[in-house]
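Researcher: Please predict.
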Amino acid sequence: MGRWERILFPGNREWACSQAEGDVLEIAAGTAARVHEISDGQMVSATVDGIELLVANVGGEYRSIGDVCTHAQCSLAEGEIEDGTVICPCHGSVFDLRSGEVLESPATEGEPVYQARVEGDEIQVAKPGT
């Protein structure tokens, strides 16, 4: 499990993010979505800094994981949200929207997780650095 850190940016803006041992988080260059675009129980796909990701509204909490299924390369955002998970529309793999973990096969590899925050009406993400 990662640890939580507070990163301070110019203008005294803070960003709370989860960080696994050895991983460095960087701020993505763009906005993934706007708050009004994603109702509770809905999700959208977005490309931020060349990364394809899914942004979901789960009970008013915005969560973001990779959008491309690790099994069949389908867009997970075209699937269904159910109890904090996303079900892939192609073969039914189930991914946890908080951890990215595979909960039901046929996928065997989890999705990357991107920490999300709301700034004004923008939903922004942090991405794992390389």
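Model: Residues 54 and 76 are 7 Å apart (CA to CA).
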